[in-house]
Amino acid sequence: MTSPAEALLRLRDAATSGELDVLCARHSVRVLTVFGSAGRGEDVARDLDVGVLVEPGGEFDVVAAISDLVELTGTDTVDVTHLNRGGPVIRERALVGSVALYESSPGALADAQAVAIAERIETDPMRRLNLDLLAS
What we know:
Beta Polymerase, domain 2, alpha+beta, 54% helix, single chain, 4 strands
């Protein structure tokens, strides 16, 4: 099996060749990123964390998307995060400071990043309050 670092290289090549565009269009993907240890270029990456933001109203089958990504990358350590369903912290982590590989239209990534940052900042006081309540 391919290492996460090699899998990221394959995804970059697929992005350059247009193969990733086809995969993303098939799965109604608006933005696709790689984040986590593989996205940061760490030597000890155990998996390939892929963030997927789906087009509004788009159908997304996570199992089919994982299957296609496993075939494309040559690794079965692909972990897909459906960002439309994730909380503000994971959305920000997956969109900001990540390796951006696909956006369905120019500016889609920047728009998603701005929304993710604003939502995380806006909800931060409530998360802190919840943590304080859990600690007491």
